[in-house]
Amino acid sequence: MRVQFRPARHRRSGRSSRRPHSPSEGSQGHGAASVQDLLDIRGFNLNAILEIEPEFLTDVAHQHDDDVTSFVFRETRPLDQQRMEEFLNGVLQVYGPSLLRYKCVLHIKGSERRMVLQGVHMLMGSDLGAPWKPGEARESKFVFIGRDMPREMLLTGLAACVACGPRPPGPRRASAA
């Protein structure tokens, strides 16, 4: 798996789309779509979820616990796209199963548009968002929800992705010696 911040591509036509599962044939007015185009878009892949969490279908005694936490990273300085990609690749490889949900809007150096990123476990997608308005305060906001997340490592690593800062440390799990 490799994280890359690129606009989503529609599978059938290759055109850029904010909704990669939207129909490619013909065009209809805003809000006009057939039920067939709205349903069965194959946007959820059960096999991919089962690879990450084999007990997904058998966990019938579901309950929330204190292990689930959340936190937000905020940064007003622009972030370096390559550093973010490298850091997030490592985070997803090591901590992906612990990351229940994450989403962000990023201020990437040299981009006049927001970078929007969201994911569940090791499944992540990104796309270009709306352009920054003239005079608008640019800020990156990254929200994490997960279990036993290495909060300080994530905050330190994201802070090191600032375009003018030192390189981020690689994510590492503590191991028993």
Question: What's a quick, concise take on this entry?
Answer:
This protein is an alpha+beta fold. The protein contains 4 helices and 5 strands.
Please supply descriptive tags for the structure shown above.
alpha+beta; disordered C terminus; globular; 4 helices; 20% helix; Hypothetical Protein Yjia, Chain: A,domain 2; five-stranded antiparallel β-sheet; 177 residues
Question: What features would you describe in this structure?
Answer:
This protein is an alpha+beta fold. It has a domain at 69-159: Hypothetical Protein Yjia, Chain: A,domain 2 (2-Layer Sandwich), CATH 3.30.1220.10. It has helices at 35-38, 46-52, 81-95, 151-159, and strands at 68-75, 99-106, 113-120, 123-131, 140-147. The protein has a 5-stranded antiparallel beta sheet, covered by helices on one side. β2 and β3 (113-120) form a beta hairpin. The chain is globular. The protein starts with 34 loop residues before the first helix and ends in an 18-residue tail after the last helix. 18% of the residues are buried. Mean pLDDT is 76; it is low at 8-23 and 172-177.
Share in β-strands:
15-25%
Q: How would you characterize the largest beta sheet?
A: 5 strands, antiparallel
Q: What would you report as the Rg, rounded to the nearest angstrom?
A: 18 Å
Q: What would the principal axes of the Cα set say about the shape?
A: globular
| Topology-level CATH name of one domain | Hypothetical Protein Yjia, Chain: A,domain 2
User: What structural category arises from helix and sheet content?
Assistant: alpha+beta
Low-confidence stretches: 8-23, 172-177
Mind telling me the CATH class of one domain?
Alpha Beta
First CA to last CA: what distance?
29 Å
CATH superfamily of one domain: CobW-like, C-terminal domain
Number of helices: 4
CATH architecture annotation of one domain: 2-Layer Sandwich
Could you give the order of strands across the largest sheet?
1-5-2-3-4
Record field, number of beta strands:
5
Order of helices and strands: HHEHEEEEH
What is the mean predicted local confidence, pLDDT? 76
